[in-house]
Design brief:
Rossmann fold; seven-stranded mixed sheet; 10 helices; binds S-adenosylmethionine
Length: about 350
């Protein structure tokens, strides 16, 4: 995102406090905060892990900005004269749309929404700004990317950007789910999670942990065999995922559930769960996957069952064997579901 920082001088004269910086990785956002020294800056993040890294970097550089972690941009308290959205090239298109639409509602009348895009030719944002704000200004093309800005005039109703889907496992009843951009598996049940649930042995009364719950579909579907005496703890580092999970759990009548926002999993109660279900992020580096495995080992009661779905069994199985001893694995739908007993 070096290029995005190089775009800032083009729009800097338009920036008026208070400023809200939307998403972005910790280091580039820290550079934006540094470039905006003298302004009152709030940074919006959805993921607790990213937000904590950002807070650390801002402190290391002796800068000042508040970092808020929320599921929705329009839930940030207050209103702003400038919203700055540094959007990297790989960013999810649906999330871009959602951020511009939600950002409108946080601007003061006459306030500006400024997008910095890594693409030198970017059709998405010009159209999007026009659709949401009526007009869009664009800086002359730069070697570093493109800049767009629009001014808020008037009002408009809030419109939630979302997709709905139904899912069922084996012979279970169908449940309905809402999904939001920026959360895993937008608009459909993930095939890996379905593969895991199809082979998971969940019994009446089970205490289930949905580790990395995303939209909550895994824990909601698991709550059916766990029945009225069972319970589900949904855990994710992404505040949007948890907000969505709450909506889905309530809509599907899940009775005994709790939500936990955590990126280090230290607050998950030890030795309490009968079943842990995990579909970890597929990042190249497997640190989160390893943390999920270590947490499962600690939080399962003796005899509790761990299900871990992966496309990389050669790397993952030894890590699970290390902590659990003997493991089984089942191939289902092109995935490997690793099963271990505590
Ligand atoms: C592959 S997705 C699975 C989501 C969901 N279970 C499903 O099947 O749709 C992995 C989830 O892990 C979450 N995650 C990533 N790092 C995490 C961490 N350090 N602590 C807790 N959750 C994390 C992500 O936000 C994401 O929702």
């Amino acid at each position: 995102m070096k290029n995005l920082i190089d775009l800032l001088p083009i729009v800097q004269s338009k920036v008026v406090s208070p400023v809200l910086v939307v998403l972005g990785a910790p280091w580039p956002v820290t550079q934006v905060v540094e470039a905006l020294a003298g302004h009152t800056v709030t940074c919006f993040q959805m993921d607790l892990f990213q937000a904590q890294r950002l807070r650390e970097k801002i402190a290391q550089e002796n800068l000042s900005a508040e970092v808020v972690v929320l599921g929705d941009l329009w839930d940030v308290p207050g209103t702003f004269n400038t919203i700055l959205y540094p959007s990297p090239a790989h960013a999810d298109r649906e999330l871009k749309i959602d951020m511009v639409e939600q950002g409108f509602h946080l601007l003061e009348p006459g306030g500006k929404f400024i997008t910095l895009s890594e693409y030198r030719r970017d059709d998405t944002f010009a159209k999007l700004h026009k659709k949401v704000f009526g007009k869009c200004s664009e800086a002359p093309r730069s070697e570093y990317g493109s800049c767009f800005w629009s001014t808020r005039e008037g009002d408009q109703p809030r419109r939630r950007h979302e997709l709905k889907f139904h899912a069922r496992v084996n012979d279970g009843a169908s449940q309905h789910f809402v999904s939001w951009p920026g959360t895993f598996s937008y608009g459909e049940m993930d095939a890996g999670s379905r593969a895991m649930l199809e082979v998971a042995d969940i019994r009446p009364g089970d205490k289930v942990l949905d580790l990395g719950c995303g939209n909550g579909s895994v824990g909601c579907l698991a709550s059916v065999p766990a029945g009225p005496t069972g319970s589900v703890l949904f855990v994710d580092s992404n505040a949007r995922a948890l907000k969505l999970t709450e909506l889905n759990a309530t809509a599907n009548g899940v009775k005994n559930y709790k939500l936990l926002l955590s990126s280090d999993l230290l607050d998950v109660p030890v030795g309490e769960f009968d079943v842990v279900l995990a579909n970890p992020p597929y990042y190249a580096n497997s640190e989160v996957g390893r943390m999920f495995i270590a947490t499962a080992r600690e939080v399962l009661r003796p005899g509790g069952r761990f299900y871990f779905v992966t496309k990389m069994p050669v790397r993952t199985i030894p890590e699970i064997v290390d902590l659990f001893g003997q493991v089984d694995s089942i191939e289902n739908r092109g995935y490997t579901v690793v099963i271990a007993t505590a």
